[in-house]
Amino acid sequence: MQSVSTLFESVKVGAIHLPNRMVMAPLTRGRANPDHVPDNLMAEYYVQRASAGLIVTEATAISPQGFGWFGAPGVWTDSHVQGWRNVTDSVHRANGRIFLQLWHMGRVSHPDFQNGQLPVGPSAIAAQGDAHVPSGKKPYVTPRALETSEIAGIVKDYARATKLAKEAGFDGVEIHGANGYLIDQFIRDGSNHRSDAYGGTVPNRIRFLLEVTEAVADAWSPDRVGVRLSPTGPYNDMKDSNPAETFTYAARALNTFGLAYLHVLEGLLGHWSAVPGPRVSPQLRDAFKGPFIVNAGYDAPKGAAAIAHGEADLVAYGTPFLANPDLVERFKTGAPLNAPQVDTFYSGGAKGYTDYPRLQQT
Ligand SMILES: Cc1cc2nc3c(=O)[nH]c(=O)nc-3n(C[C@H](O)[C@H](O)[C@H](O)COP(=O)(O)O)c2cc1C
Description:
The protein is 29% helix and 16% strand. By secondary structure, it is an alpha/beta fold. It has one domain: Alpha-Beta Barrel (TIM Barrel). α3 packs parallel to α6 and α7 runs parallel beside α8. The radius of gyration is 19 Å and the shape is globular. Flavin mononucleotide is lined by residues 25-28, 58-59, 101, 176, 178-179, 228, 265, 271-272, 295-298, 317-320, 345.
């Protein structure tokens, strides 16, 4: 068997030491209560996966305006903080480390979550696809383009959510700049047709990302902050005319903050969010001077090889961690993996959530 030992080397990521290089990728699971509060079942799910070097939580809305997925959690009320405190305390008692993923969905929220109002985006351009609303799925709508004067308020929402994450006992936060949500909608020119300082040139399109990053870093500390990007991912109908240029510029600009890490989702062919054509993550790896996490489509040998060849410092695993609470142990021993059950990804309840068997149970 090919050596997978590089995955089990310890590593320092910003302010925290990780015992191994396997990151649990953020996974929306739709199990929060109707007020978007995490409950004991969510704590149990994360505790089961605490042997990951680092857990990144499911995407968590920073404000009612940023919310738009049935069953997703939030981080804007005291109840949210209390619910998350239960999760972080439980994970820490199990010797784990956990970052909260900060989320504003922008144009792919839905009027059903916005008191009948339109969701907001950089431009009035609809994405093709469906929103996960309480009654099932509904097509995305054409959003209202944000006024320039509204943007500073959203940046403040990110800062407030970061302070609440700190209060809730997290080890850090990850800014969700991937997968066609608000920050990504600003970055890529398929969804951003603005003519103000937030649109047009690449520096203008990444301005929102940088303002959010600065505010989040100031609200806590840059070494507690990671950023996630998906330069070529088509999810949520995303396109950019020159992803290599756009995202290399962004990765270089992020160097000024001294962040904990940059996390890049770029599917290996045949996997989640994969696109045919050249991958740009190697250019981002060169441009970013800090810990670099790769994701999508990795198994143990591919992840270990990416670290051994210097393509990454850490590897994030999404669906493998979803279906295998003891993924670290399974990779160490070469044990077979449970297969993820797609029909229970967002279905609510314990089935397909906390009942995936551990090795000794199989
Ligand atoms: C059920 C599900 C939920 C996801 N939710 C999120 C999310 O909340 N935030 C995010 O950045 N990515 C999300 N993703 C993407 C994963 O983090 C990851 O990039 C993807 O599963 C590919 O990695 P893998 O090949 O290891 O599974 C989700 C993916 C799946 C399958």
